[in-house]
Amino acid sequence: MSAVLEPFDAIDTGRDCAACEAGDQVADGRLAQPSRLSVEGVSLDYRGERGPIRATHRVGFDVLPSERFVLLGASGCGKSSLLKAVGGFLSPTEGRILVDGRPIDGPGPDRIAVFQEFDQLPPWKTVLENVAFPLIASGSSPRKAALEQARHWLARVGLADFASAFPHQLSGGMKQRVAIARALAMKPRVLLMDEPFAALDALTRRRMQDELLALWEQERFTLLFVTHSIEEALIVGHRVLVLSPHPGRVRAELNAQGLTPAQRAAQANRIERLLFGGPAAVDAFSEPVAAERAAALN
């Protein structure tokens, strides 16, 4: 199912940039492939004091095998709620979510999440034990095999020398690498990442983005990534779904794959217009503008 554009939103649909044309060029190739993940008209409600509160309204999108798909929007647009629903932790009020054509009915090892919190690693376990734990607990591997797989994945994320360390001895970026290794060790059908680098400083965040892309080049996992950063969305994603807030609705689905710097800047400006309205004649990646926009999105 392709993205649903709500008719009551004023959506910029003009093909006024080379980046938009680049997205059209890859669209035909996507249509023939079966989806790894399908979100079909999903609405999510929370229980409030005065009744249900709608988090998302009839959101739909498809993610292909080995694709990096980004959900982008301000706080309150429901992007994290959507990721939790894909993980099986929230049930849609309407619509459905499918993995490899099968509806999900709860959490499962085919969908593993990495969050931004650094305390997602049990502090009493070593780094090696943290990575091996899901394999052992799920019955996927006996302990000896799980530890071997954990060593393999720690090496893949550059932490082989820290296998005996405890989480409190690691930096924030290193903890996130452990969390990524732990998730990928389970070989999920879809890797879910909810603003995993948001709590890191700017330099570490950029390095972690590069490391994630390098790991994807080796493993080609399917990724659903949540962020409120326009720059991060265009760096990490093949495609970006822009969500409007209160409740979250699809504003646009944009291409971010194979863009030149000029095309990436054009897409960033287009996202600026979708999120904030009006012309975006400034460089969305400049440090002052990026900081201002990040504050606004939060």
Automatic annotation (TrEMBL):
ABC transporter domain residues: 37-270
Gene Ontology molecular function, alphabetical: ATP binding; ATP hydrolysis activity
Keyword Membrane in record: yes
InterPro entries: AAA+_ATPase, ABC_transporter-like_ATP-bd, ABC_transporter-like_CS, ABC_transporter_ATP-bind, P-loop_NTPase
PROSITE patterns, A to Z: ABC_TRANSPORTER_1, ABC_TRANSPORTER_2
Keyword Nucleotide-binding: yes
Any matching Pfam family: ABC_tran
Keywords carried by this UniProt record: ATP-binding, Cell membrane, Membrane, Nucleotide-binding, Transport
Family to which this protein belongs: Belongs to the ABC transporter superfamily.
PANTHER family: ABC TRANSPORTER ATP-BINDING PROTEIN, TAURINE IMPORT ATP-BINDING PROTEIN-RELATED
Protein name: Sulfonate ABC transporter ATP-binding protein
